[in-house]
Amino acid sequence: MPISTEEQRFLDAVSLDAPWDLVTTFAGMHRWRPEDVNKAADVIVAKLQRHGIPVEVHEPEICLSVPLDAAVTAGGVRYRAKPPSSALPVPGGRTAPLVKLNANPKALRSYTRDIATLFGGSITSVEEVKRKVGGKIVIMQGFGNPALTSLIEEWGGVGLIAVNPGIDIHWGTCTTIWGSPDLHDLPRKPKIPVVAVNNPDGMKLMELAEAGGEATIMTDMQEGWFPQKIPVVTIPGTEDPEKFVLLHGHYDSWEVGVGDNATGDATMLEIARVLWAKRGELKRSVKIAWWPGHSTGRYAGSTWFTDAFAQDLDENCLAQVNCDSPGCRWATSYHQTRAFTESAALAAGAIRDVVPDAEIKTIRPPQAGDYSFNNIGLPSFFMLSSTMPEALRKEKGYYDVSGCGANIAWHTENDTLEIADQGVLMTDMKIYLLSVLRIANAEALPFDWIATCDEFDATIAGYEKASQGAADLSPAKVAVAGLREALGRLGAAPVAARNAAVHELSRILVPINYTREARFAHDPAYTVPPLPGLAVAAELPQLDAALQKPAQVELMRGQNRFVAALRAATRRVQQAVAA
């Protein structure tokens, strides 16, 4: 829809002065060690207060793993390396034979645990790979991510060397634990050392592996529970102040992290400034939060907030909007816009109205970023922001990375001031502001649950086809049809009743589509397939005979969960229509 006169007044108030000041300040500040992160929070707070914006600062203790040093020694040569956060500390080194695994290049930054996706058919069975890697240090191309690390550990590998695609080494994380661990999570803490090396060194090490050589991995980490500051601004609405939109992003970074995520921090600062100045024109509230613990705590800051304010989020939060890596150089495309299906039209519409000729494609968010709210069930959109056009990325010879607008400075020492672009930042700030406004000031909440029903139908059809006749998903299809029919009448309900129903639908439908764990828990940090309770249907033709009946039991239980959720959603819509 076109930008309204009221919306334009907000957009016209956006300036580069305050946000660019924060970008340049953070360009001179390391923000990954706990004490430096807290200093950065103080900077954010001071800049908010300079604009007269009230800010609340929480200071929880969260669990962090901070890389200090790493190296690989092999063939008498010491190679530079970086350990991802949460790698097992082995300051004295661990020595073992090397073994090379061939990775699928398309899965270099994947969070999947699917063997075929990760290894492209080079491994045909789990037993085969266990025999190959047991007791050895695995070396392979890619990033030392959580899914891969957990698999290598399960297979008996005693270490992992990830060979990054270029001449730089990227920081990262390797734990599947989401946020600070609870007792249930602790067994999943990585039990092997993991390091990343650059491509030239990695090629030499892989040659050594093929020749039957061995290597020593050394990792030195600072681990523990650290007090970390979480600044939160609340801009109150004038009509329904209890209901709010949550805009958020991380302020800790690797090194000075300009594109990831000083530009995001600056975007949120400017939106806070504009909304506070024009708060009398807001119907609902907006909360803006800056997270620590993203890089070294696997989203520990946002996870703490989710846990500490779970009931308020459940009852009152209308949507979460993640702000990561906006305003980077050359990032003029929006073909990798993350959004849940019910939020996709809202996200794409805000982009299109600010950038009419933009290339836009919305995609399902991975189990990554600060999406720490899925188990509560919040409508969600944005994660990484604008990105480089694909043709330009290929022209520059850049490989895929997960931020910085596709600049390969991501998670390296090179993510410095030249990665930021004032023009792109101005555009992205307006997109974020407009999308937040269109929730806060909407008469009817702009979430399209019929589109989600379309997604469910497509997912179910895909699983049923992949099952080759082994799965009967007709109860699931009937349940979707029932919800779709009820939603078709929701527009006739009074606006207040309609909004209440749309709000509550997310608490039912988001967890069923994105999580396996219970509400208010946190799923592990690896890819969850759509409608995970039904996903086993697609695996049936490939499973051994001994696993067929247990898989059918799993499918029956998953389908029961799905059908019950859809029926509950249908009843909720029917109640609104009858109001």
From TrEMBL:
Subcellular location: Endoplasmic reticulum; Golgi apparatus; Lysosome; Secreted
Domain of life: Bacteria
Keywords in alphabetical order: Carboxypeptidase, Endoplasmic reticulum, Glycoprotein, Golgi apparatus, Hydrolase, Lysosome, Metal-binding, Metalloprotease, Protease, Secreted, Signal, Zinc, Zymogen
Residues in Peptidase M28 domain copies: 232-425
UniProt key word Heme: no
Coiled coil: none
Self-association state and partner proteins as the record states: Homodimer. The monomeric form is inactive while the homodimer is active.
Protein name: Carboxypeptidase Q
Lineage: Bacteria, Pseudomonadati, Pseudomonadota, Alphaproteobacteria, Acetobacterales
